[in-house]
Amino acid sequence: MLVEDGETTLVVDAGPDFRQQMLRAGVKNLDALLITHEHKDHLAGLDDVRAFNFLQKKHIPIYGLPRVLERIQVEYAYAFAEKKYPGVPQLDLYPATEAFFEFGSIKVWPIPVMHARLPVLGYRFGNFTYITDANHIGPEAREIIRGSDFLVLNALQKEPHISHFTLEEAIGVARELEVPNVYFTHMSHKMGRHKLIEKELPPGIQLAWDGLIIRTS
Ligand SMILES: [Zn+2]
Ligand SMILES: [Zn+2]
Predict the structure, then answer these.
(1) DSSP string, 59-128
(2) 1-96 with 100-217: one CATH topology?
(3) In the chain, what are the domain boundaries?
(4) Element of type H or E holding 173
(5) Residue 30 CA to ligand 2 centre (angstroms)
(6) How far is the CA of 125 from the centre of ligand 1 (A)?
(7) CA of 85 to the centre of ligand 1 (A)
(8) pLDDT by residue (tens digit) across 153-182?
(9) What pLDDT does 101 receive?
(10) Is 0.90 surpassed by the pTM of this model?
């Protein structure tokens, strides 16, 4: 998920398709990566940040929970070795806690939510909130989200799951938060066909798709 305001470009997570996604979207500049959590479907593309190091001739800042930054240093140990092989990704790690911070021209509110027993981060940028891989959003996190005009939220499938909202649960959260424009993401193939599921959704809620562009102003 890429956020840009004409000045600053941020990307949330670098899954296995990161390289292909950046090529498809024609992304030439990346100012920072914000990581939600360390699961491979959110992190496996991190090595391809090196293309941006090469193009922009600078290190790329990576924000995440301290636990997640530790995992990155283990799983991509070669990028943090004292003597580095030429061409490895150049990553600068910064802890994102629960405090608001500004990156370039973009204001970022990390939102702590739960993915079964794993704390993960969602992020709010202005009137837009992005939450993936959650199945519990506590009262404090709900207060940060409230007032957003746009919400992207995970909805895995109709059947119960230990660490993701089901379709019904996600609809319940979207309604409770009263965000007018909601898009579901992180859908499993078990969800059913896009066109059929969309017919079941209340007004203001839709399924997201690859390449979706949301203009927030
Ligand atoms: Zn996950
Ligand atoms: Zn995931």
Answers:
(1) -EEEEE-HHHHHHHHHHTGGGG-SSPPTT---EEEEE--SS-EEETTEEEEEEEEEETTEEEEEEEETTE
(2) yes
(3) 1-96, 100-217
(4) helix 167-177
(5) 22
(6) 21
(7) 30
(8) 999 999 999 999 999 999 999 999 999 999
(9) 87
(10) yes
**Paired sense of beta strands 150-154 and 181-185, if any:** parallel
| Separation of CA 133 and ligand 2 centre (Å) | 5
Query: In the CATH hierarchy, which top-level class contains the domain 100-217?
Result: alpha beta
Ligand 1: distance of its center to the CA of 40 in Å?
8
C-alpha 56 to ligand 1 mean position (Å)? 30
- What spacing in Å lies between the alpha carbon of 86 and ligand 2's midpoint? 31
Interval 66-123: pLDDT, tens = 999 999 999 999 999 999 999 999 999 999 987 888 999 999 999 999 999 999 999 9
Ligand 1 centroid to Cα of residue 127, in Å, is 24
What DSSP string describes 8-33? -EEEE---TTHHHHHHHTT-----EE
The Å distance, Cα 115 to ligand 1 centre, comes to 7
Q: Which ligand is nearest to the CA of 15?
A: 2
Architecture (CATH level 2) of domain 1-96:
4-Layer Sandwich (3.60)
